[in-house]
Amino acid sequence: MDIEKLLRRAGGIIKLQGREYVTFRGLLFVAHEAGLESVDVKLIDWDADSKTAIVSATVSGERGSFSDIGDASPQNVNRMIANATIRMASTRAQARALRSYLGVGFTSLEELPGEQKSKPQQQPTQHQIKEEQFNYVGAANWALTQGAFTSVDEALSAQRDVFDSSMSNEQMRSVWRSEVEARTNP
Questions:
Q1: Which helix (H) or strand (E) holds 47?
Q2: 20 and 94 assigned to the same domain
Q3: Do 143 and 104 lie in a common domain?
Q4: For the chain, what is the domain count?
């Protein structure tokens, strides 16, 4: 089973600031394909004053059992997620454990500090845009990193509202950039 190929096909690897990152959503999808049987998450530490959380996650399946931790605080998450640090710590812990389970060396998008992942480094050229199919999940993940949405599902739902079937890939990219900018720069 070629894990990287499955991740790419599922839209689970995105490029941001010239580097590739794997998404939690992609990891979870591929892990199920690779025999994932259980995910156990435990809150290790919670400081209500600083809203800092540390969570442990253990994933088990056909490939064995793997554990890791994740942390989150308002200082290391996107401002839109600052009130959801326990959930973000959980997502980060699960992503790290799933990466070990699958043998994936890419850092997950969710592990990045909030403000550092906010702006893609370069825009694709017009030639690249015409050649590439619109990646709905990748675009939703990018919008999440911009702080335009609080979840990938919310971003995907918004895409259904702003796109129409007659749009080209280039038009969808343009409309989506405008939608994200409107939500992040009110």
A1: strand 36-47
A2: yes
A3: no
A4: 2
Tokens of 79: 């401002």
Tokens of 47: 């400081």
User: 111 forms bridges with which residues in the sheet?
Assistant: none
> Is the same domain home to 39 and 101?
yes
- Work out the mean pLDDT of the chain and round it to a whole number: 85
DSSP H or E segment with residue 179? helix 169-184
What integer pLDDT is reported at residue 115 of this predicted model?
Answer: 57
In this prediction, residue 117 carries a pLDDT of: 42
Q: Residue 170: give the domain boundaries.
A: 123-184
Chain-centre distance of CA 9, in angstroms? 15
- Residue 157's H or E segment, with its range, is helix 152-162
d(CA 63, CA 169): 38
Start-to-end Cα distance in the chain:
45
pLDDT (tens digit, 9 = 90+) per residue, 39-82?
A: 999 999 999 999 999 999 999 999 999 999 999 999 999 888 88
User: Cα angle at 141 between 181 and 95, to 5 degrees?
Assistant: 145
